[in-house]
């Protein structure tokens, strides 16, 4: 399977330099990451919301090595909040953050990440929106969940992400499926060892359905992060059986993938949120998109050949 190989490459400085230097790379990256600055993505935000879609915005960047970089990440999100306020779109556009970008992996990183993300969450609440804490590799999750719990004391709408391929996730879902919680369920996009995660697609799919059932039957607000048509259908059926109205859960998909499906679900009355990333440090995000789905890798390889 190519997925683990690509995920390993996502951590390689040599591969980063090689792929970044390819002339075709920018064209393909633009499919998933529509800009480098807030100004670049404002037209995307306006276009998608005009079509009845909602968004979650991600300023890409994870390889933070200094506190100064973490402060810059915080400031980038605060600038995004300012633009959303100016656009009057606070209730339509939320934000997703990776705590590694806020300094989680540095010395004293747990406290640093909490101190950096709190003003972003506070600013988001002031314009009527919220923040979801993205899940990263399994070694970071205890810290992420502790920060999530701390933030929810003052900002109970703060969301978090859980990953179906991890063995721990079913227990995490039971704990999180409480009134007022917002939980995004994804399959998982990091290279994890067999000791902590399912490795086969069919195992991951089964785990996804089990966890989703727990969330749908709970009292929180499930966010279904998947492009898989079968899982989307299962999610709709689980929501029906749980007696959920269309505004009591939502679908989330990545910008650049299955755009027609985004519009179809929105037209049916579902809440459909498009995960839209922007920024200059795109490499890790881009490589995980290639690893997640063979069609994405084929698109990249075809583009290399056609432009070669």
UniProtKB/TrEMBL annotation:
Transmembrane segments: none annotated. The keyword Lyase does not apply. Its cofactor is FAD. It comes from the Bacteria. It is an enzyme of class 1 (oxidoreductase). It holds the Pfam family Pro_dh. Residues 45-299 form the Proline dehydrogenase domain. Its EC number is 1.5.5.2. Keywords: FAD, Flavoprotein, Nucleotide-binding, Oxidoreductase, Proline metabolism. SUPFAM superfamilies: FAD-linked oxidoreductase. Pathway: Amino-acid degradation; L-proline degradation into L-glutamate; L-glutamate from L-proline: step 1/2. It catalyses: L-proline + a quinone = (S)-1-pyrroline-5-carboxylate + a quinol + H(+). The keyword Transferase does not apply. This is proline dehydrogenase. It comes from Streptomyces justiciae.
């Amino acid at each position: 399977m190519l997925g683990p190989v690509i995920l390993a490459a996502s951590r390689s400085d040599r591969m980063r330099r090689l792929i970044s230097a390819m002339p075709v790379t920018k064209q393909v990256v633009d499919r998933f990451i529509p800009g480098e600055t807030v100004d670049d993505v404002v037209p995307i935000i306006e276009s998608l919301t005009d079509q009845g879609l909602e968004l979650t915005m991600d300023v890409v960047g994870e390889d933070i090595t200094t506190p100064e970089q973490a402060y810059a990440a915080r400031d980038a999100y605060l600038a995004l909040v300012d633009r959303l306020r100016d656009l009057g779109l606070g209730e339509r556009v939320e934000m997703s953050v990776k705590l590694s970008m806020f300094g989680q992996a540095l010395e004293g990183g747990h406290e640093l990440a909490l101190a950096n993300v709190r003003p972003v969450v506070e600013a988001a609440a002031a314009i009527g929106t919220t923040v979801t804490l993205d899940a990263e590799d399994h070694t970071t999750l205890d810290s992420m969940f502790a920060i999530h719990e701390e933030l929810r004391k003052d900002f109970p709408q703060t969301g978090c992400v859980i990953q179906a391929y991890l063995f721990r996730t079913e227990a995490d879902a039971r704990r999180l499926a409480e009134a007022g919680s917002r939980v995004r369920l994804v399959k998982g996009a990091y290279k994890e060892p067999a000791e902590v995660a399912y490795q086969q697609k069919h195992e991951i799919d089964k785990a996804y359905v089990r966890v989703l059932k727990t969330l749908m039957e709970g009292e929180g607000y499930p966010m279904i992060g998947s492009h898989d048509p079968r899982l989307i259908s299962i999610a709709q059926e689980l929501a029906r059986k749980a007696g959920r109205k269309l505004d009591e859960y939502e679908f989330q998909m990545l910008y650049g993938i299955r755009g027609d499906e985004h519009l179809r679900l929105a037209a049916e009355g579902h809440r459909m949120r498009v995960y839209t990333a922007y920024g200059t440090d795109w490499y890790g995000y881009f490589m995980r998109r290639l690893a997640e789905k063979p069609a994405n890798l084929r698109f990249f390889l075809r583009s290399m050949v056609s432009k070669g």
